[in-house]
UniProtKB/TrEMBL annotation:
The lineage of its organism: Eukaryota, Viridiplantae, Streptophyta, Embryophyta, Tracheophyta. GO terms for cellular component: mitochondrion. Keywords: Mitochondrion, Repeat, Transit peptide. InterPro entries: PPR_rpt, TPR-like_helical_dom_sf. Belongs to the PPR family. P subfamily. GO terms for molecular function: mRNA binding. Pfam families: PPR (PF01535), PPR_2 (PF13041). It is found in: Mitochondrion. PPR repeats lie at residues 163-197. The keyword Transit peptide applies. This is Pentatricopeptide repeat-containing protein.
Amino acid sequence: MDPKLFSKTLIRNATWSRSYYTNRNNKVTLYTKISPLGSPSLSVVPELDNWVQKGKKVRVGELHRIIRDLRKRKRYTHALEVSEWMKQKGVCIFSATEHAVQLDLIGRVRGYLEAENYFNDLRDEDKTDKTYGALLNCYVCGRQSDLSLSHLEKMKELGFASSALTYNDIMCLYTNLGQCEKVPEVLEEMKENQVLPDNFSYRICMNSYGKRSDVEGMERVLKEMEGQSHVVMDWNSYAVAANFYIKAGLTDKATYALKKVEETLDKKDALGYNNLISLYAKLGNKEEVLRVWTLEKSACKRYINRDYMVMLDSLVRLGAIEEAEEVLKEWESSGNCYDFRVPSNLIDGYSEKGLCGKAEALLEDLMEKGKSTTPNSWGKVAAGYLEGGEMEKAFKCMKAAFLVHVEKVGSPAVIDVPLKKSWKPNHEVINSLLRWLSDTGSVQEVEAFVGSVKTVIPMSREIYHALLKARIRGGLEINSLLDAMKTDNVDEDEETINILAMKQN
């Protein structure tokens, strides 16, 4: 798991989504029509319109649940579409609560300026603590320090800054801006203004000390938190402490904190187990990772793709490849929807361990079953083969990477693999393959490979050198290539001169 993402998860409330999985009852609901539309490029509005056109009921409560679920899954564009559709169709009269939700979504999707315009157009009676708070959050997400602080002052004047949520936003602002030293000051201001800090307030403050490697400061906040009668200690707070203890190399304290995580988490809270597994993996304790995984499977009964991803990532981190293979088999028989991010953990693990043959075999098996893969995974396997000097196998995998890239670009609606905006192959791998191919391959092979490469990488001196060498070896003309080099402003260097000398010999 990405360390930055992991850190953010620890200090936030337990809102990780339960990833989409197969609807085993096959009951068609509005949610089951919208949920699979994972790509932001696919609008959910046609599904909403179609649902109504078929004479089916649209319940306000169900739409609210859909928006809430989409927000949890970070599908903000779709959540905004549902909210705006509700308003446009007059499904319900928007209260300050609905306006606040839409404000938040506008800020996330279109930026704080659009959210500000929406807020300014609201009726006075809808400008409540909820909508003011939502706009503050938009400013914070946009990292607008001056606007956030001036808006906070306005909220104070109106008596709208009486909740922990408002101050938590400002603490998040300072955290996002890298001004962690200001976070404890906000906590103190809360207490001076008779605003009780909540669990999240204390976690943000603990995190601010941890980021500055001030373990003693973090421990003071944790101790204060434990002494507050209005605060119910939760696993998130102990997980924050454990994470920073691990970073500081304080193994005994980290182990104690992890035991507190386990004591305080709800026994059916898969998110808590996921974090516990990841932390034990960071601590290097494979036995505890396996023990907690067994506990999670016993307690939660149903495990989603995210659970498998966390477990596979943890086992790969620990180098426990055989155990990871067993977990992948469990996932394959789970009935969950296909998500390439699950097997990609093991593919990456194979590549890192030099088990490129296994990685390639797994990728090929997925493709034979009609499952999607990613160019990046094929590229990693190619890099592994290259490092081992197996050029032909590296070339084969890199060609597969380009083929998959073309398929993804041509089919942006694919939902079983998250489509990144762009894929950039490893330049060192590409250049090594070009050098090898220009010495051993035919002109047709070199030109075909270059044709793929230049779809994602601008023409470079290395690419032109490969083409020149191949054409000279094949006894073909090179004047057109030299002209193209000039057109692309690619200057000749000493290597270019040496290559051209081959033609004279």
